[in-house]
Amino acid sequence: MIIYTNKGNPLALKLLISAKLAKKEITVEQLNLSSTSTSEVQHLPTLKLDCGTEIFSSNAAVKYLLPTHDNVASLDEWLEWSTTRLAPVLAHHMAAGHKADPNARPILNQLVKTLNDTLSKSLFLTGAKLSAADVAVWSLLAPDGTLKGAHDIDSLLIWYKKISELPEVIDALKVLPLNDLHFSSFEQANRFGGFHHIVLGQHPGDEPQLLADLPNQIAETVSAEETDLAKQNFIYIKPVDVKEPRTVLPVRGKRNVLITSALPYVNNIPHLGNIIGSVLSADIFARYSRVAGYNTLYVCGTDEYGTATETKALAENMTPQQICDKYFEIHNNIYRWFGIGFDYFGRTSTPEQTKIVQELFLDLLEAGFMETQSVDQLLCTNCDRFLADRFVEGTCPYIGCGYEDARGDQCDGCGKLVNAIELVRPRCKICSSAPIIRQSNQFFINLPLIEPKLRSWLDGVEDKWSNNARMITKSWLKEGLKSRCITRDLKWGIPVPYKGFETKVFYVWFDAPIGYMSITNKYTNEWRQWWQPADKSMNIELFQFIGKDNVPFHSVMFPSTLLGVNKGYTTVTHIMATEYLNYEGGKFSKSRGIGVFGNDAQDTGIPSDVWRFYLASARPEGQDSNFSWVDLVTRNNSELLNNLGNFINRSLVFCEKSFNSTIPAVVLKEDDLILLALVNREIKGYIHSMERAKFRDGLRHILSISRHGNQYMQTQQSWVLLKGTDDDKARAASVIALTCNLVCLLATLLFPFMPQTSRTIFKQLNTGERNIDAEKPFMVQYFETGHTIGKPSPLFAKIEANRLEDLKQKYGGQQEATTAAVSEPQYKSVAEFEKAIQAQGDKVRALKANKTEKSALDPEIAILLKLKKDLQSFVEKEKTSTPATQPSEKIKDLEEKIAKQGEKVRNLKASGDKTIWQPEVDVLLKLKGELTALTGGVQPAPASKNKKKK
């Protein structure tokens, strides 16, 4: 791994320390910001993984390097606090020469007091163990270790010294020495001594809004060339009202972008991971694509054929068509509420789908890429049908498992894939009778014959795919492709148009991707202009947004079909695959009430745009990510409310109250040009990120712009200028005019993520929606002097702590009753466990035979699995158990330790130095807590700190 950084960047220091603490091999490359060779490096520091993935967020990088612990919520809060609270104010304090700005002191007092209060109660910021939070905060305060001029910070100093003495920290400082931290000269750094000239004793005042994320003197990095370009491009651009055609078709000479997202299975309700994994990600990109002026079409729909639909229909006592109709409407309504802007949302159970699938099959057959093979299948003579994998159950064939309710495709007991005909004592899921093995002829697509074409095609496109899509595809090709079966003996599916195969249908993996074509056909009869253009020079880029589990079907199977047909079909140019989004560290489960599903989000009272924003910020791009209620609330209250919403509202209210809702003239000065240059950097980074579907980074650039805006407003202090001379008032007017233009830019960049919010901002600005020029990443002047804005109003609402707890409890699942059922009674022998397992297994089989609803069945299966796990733990414990210390002996030992520690504390308190005796008091309290827990007594509450001494 490599850390790319500039000289003296504490965010890089925290990455290096984290890597060393985690014993990971890492190198550091220090770059010169003014060097032309680093023009492609958008953010510093950047962590580049061995697989090629780049992580730009320093908080995400430090969590990757130094794995999280139990207190994940607290860790996330501290990391967020360090970048949005501590770092900006320290940077502002240093920029003012430490003493020049009196507004900074009370804020610094408050920030340092926050640290000290926390550390007086625990060894480290998140508890008893060192975490990434400590590294992040310490790195901002590094490196001289004295906190010059500070007092009443005993615990903070102990904590600081403890980390300073770690060998990993000492080694890291040798690589990244920060004694010249962020100053223009070494002499200046020596004079100020790092971040440590903090003077306490002032009363905390009202905190101004926070500054930019990076705590370095970023303004000093702005070059004259950047300010010249900013000035040249800040010109008024009259908005152009471009109306999209009713039917979007490819246009010669334009960038034509065709976007699809994985077709969701129609037999379930999508959870948040499903939504961000495909449809929402595709929608964000489609909206960006339109804002950038590209000719864009976005289609999707429900995947309706296959065994999963038949299984769901059986469970709900409905026909497959009725199931599809029911869940299509559920999906459609959920996506509408989330603001997903499909050009067309269709389904695969249509005549158009049947026609195109059969056409492609016959073309492959004619081209010589089809073959028939005889395969062993399970036949239920009672039901008179071949059984699809999910219609077979039996005992798992793997040694050491023996789970009696394994499915024909996978065992839920051990998690391994299963071949249906290998199940021990298989039974039909419908009638429970034992099936027999019969041979059945099926069609296979001959992938080995197509493989040379596929490899040649991959060489020209895979560099535009997400890294996981490339890796998964390479793993499939590593040992060469094998022929794949494309037909099945089912009833619900597209019939195979070939003599002797009239009772068979196409396997869902073969027909589902073709749904992109048939859905486009439902949108327009001219669908072939997108999918099979007659004009070979027509430039069409196909972006497909999917989860990583769908990669092989989009990178190998579907392209092989189109390449084998060889009739000029459009193949994918960009595969954008996500990893998995987990829920509070676990998996989503509808049956157990764990996690937020599409229909639940509406019931939370949280606006759909806030959901969109949060899911995009938590999008699992380089690795699995985690949904956290604390993270959602923190981001809403900090990033949306305090940062973005605050800047927009302050700007527009100033314009309304001080300038009669009229945009004044802009007269650019040096500070304005620096702001514009910094904003232009973020615009360039935003476009770079969005073009590559790096939405988390795209959002980060937007938030950085609003932080630059907040910093600018705070330093310019228009409210003070308005009370001054005529020149001061004119300057205040220019500042507000510039910030109102910045608001319009933010609304434009935010539109892909939060369309309703952006429309509200445009309405408050009294202007129409705007576009961006991806070829010219510069801020322009959006308003002529004299433009009248609308009525400002707050955009976001705070989510209170009590509401957070309600949401966590509501969607945390109802496993308590299940857990209790598993835990009681406590079995005291292997025989008792085996008897309980047998009884629970019989209960599960009886419920399955009665076609019990999944919501009622799953908890019983969980009990069975837990019993088996408990039996294994019981056996292992019996083997390794040793005589335990008697409780009375433990109590006596603790009482002796408490007596000795109490005497030690009393002697140390006589010295009066709290830094010495406070850690020993903590040890004493811990020992007393252990004694209380062992004896079952009630531990006395600590004395109030406000209690007066007698």
What does it look like?
This protein is of the alpha/beta class and about 950 residues long. Among the domains are: about 1-210, Up-down Bundle (Glutathione S-transferase Yfyf (Class Pi), Chain A, domain 2); about 255-355 and about 505-600, Rossmann fold (3-Layer(aba) Sandwich), CATH 3.40.50; about 390-435, no CATH class; about 815-880; about 885-935. It contains 34 helices and 20 strands. Strand 3 and strand 4 form a beta hairpin. Residues about 35-40, about 95-105, about 180-215, about 815-825, about 880-885 and about 935-950 have low confidence and may be disordered. Keywords: Aminoacyl-tRNA synthetase, ATP-binding, Cytoplasm, Ligase, Membrane, Nucleotide-binding, Protein biosynthesis, RNA-binding, Transmembrane, Transmembrane helix, tRNA-binding.
Sheet/helix structural class: alpha/beta
Give the neighbour order of strands across the main sheet. 7-6-5-17-18
Instruction: Kindly report how far apart the N and C termini lie.
Output: 60 Å
CATH class group of the domain at 2-211: Mainly Alpha
Q: Biggest sheet, in brief?
A: 5 strands, parallel
- Helical residue percent band: 40-55%
CATH fold call of the domain at 2-211: Glutathione S-transferase Yfyf (Class Pi), Chain A, domain 2
Low-confidence stretches: 33-42, 95-104, 180-217, 814-825, 882-886, 937-950
If helices are DSSP runs of H or I spanning 4 or more residues, what is the number of helices?
34
Beta-strand content bin: 5-15%
The CATH architecture term of the domain at 2-211 is Up-down Bundle
Mean pLDDT: 82
Morphology call = globular
Radius of gyration: 32 Å
